């Protein structure tokens, strides 16, 4: 938000505060006989609040217009903070990548189905999708053929029979294509 916007907000808040002070004073003060609202105290309350607010707005404007080294120091400090945060975010991304790759490595090599399932669920929670394309047509752009087996019928030729090693996609980026066994036609 720019300083011009802040000044405008300060002026608006001052005007509203002055009006509310005037109304509150007019309602609380003892009105003249036959009146339900004390006009003179209300005007005094409004004037006092408006004067106080105007002085504060002038001080705010003077403080924001004053050129000096403080503004340059704040800009340099902000730039340094942004550089530090960017480096920290980059490091967090690298750390995440290392953890995801390690989890995939451990999941592929564990002998416990319960551990493999738990690691798979955790990977899914952080945005990693496990690719197990059994029963779909083999596509060399998305699958790696690890072997083949005779097809039980002609419609199964070229279809993935089994997944030897699952593949993984992390937030839209392919980490590893699944290694699959493909049905092939019977040789004559």
From TrEMBL:
GO terms for biological process: protein folding. GO terms for molecular function: adenyl-nucleotide exchange factor activity; protein homodimerization activity; protein-folding chaperone binding. The chain crosses the membrane at residues 39-62. SUPFAM superfamilies: Head domain of nucleotide exchange factor GrpE. It comes from the Bacteria. Pfam families: GrpE. Keywords: Chaperone, Membrane, Transmembrane, Transmembrane helix. This is GrpE protein. It comes from Actinorhabdospora filicis.
């Amino acid at each position: 938000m720019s300083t011009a916007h802040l000044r405008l907000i300060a002026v608006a808040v001052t005007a509203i505060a002055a009006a509310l002070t005037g109304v509150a004073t007019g309602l609380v003060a003892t009105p003249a006989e036959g009146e339900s609202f004390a006009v003179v105290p209300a005007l005094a309350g409004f004037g006092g609040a408006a004067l106080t607010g105007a002085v504060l707005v002038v001080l705010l404007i003077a403080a924001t217009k004053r050129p000096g080294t403080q503004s340059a120091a704040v800009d340099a400090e902000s730039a340094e903070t942004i550089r530090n945060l960017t480096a920290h975010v980059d490091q967090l991304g690298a750390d995440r990548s290392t953890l995801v790759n390690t989890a995939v490595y451990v999941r592929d090599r564990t002998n416990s189905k319960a551990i493999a399932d738990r690691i798979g669920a955790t990977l899914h929670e952080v945005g990693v999708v496990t690719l197990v394309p059994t029963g779909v047509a083999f596509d060399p752009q998305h699958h790696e053929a690890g072997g083949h087996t005779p097809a039980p019928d002609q419609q199964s030729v070229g279809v993935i029979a089994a997944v030897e090693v699952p593949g993984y996609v992390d937030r839209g980026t392919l980490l590893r294509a699944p290694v699959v066994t493909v049905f092939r036609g019977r040789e004559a």
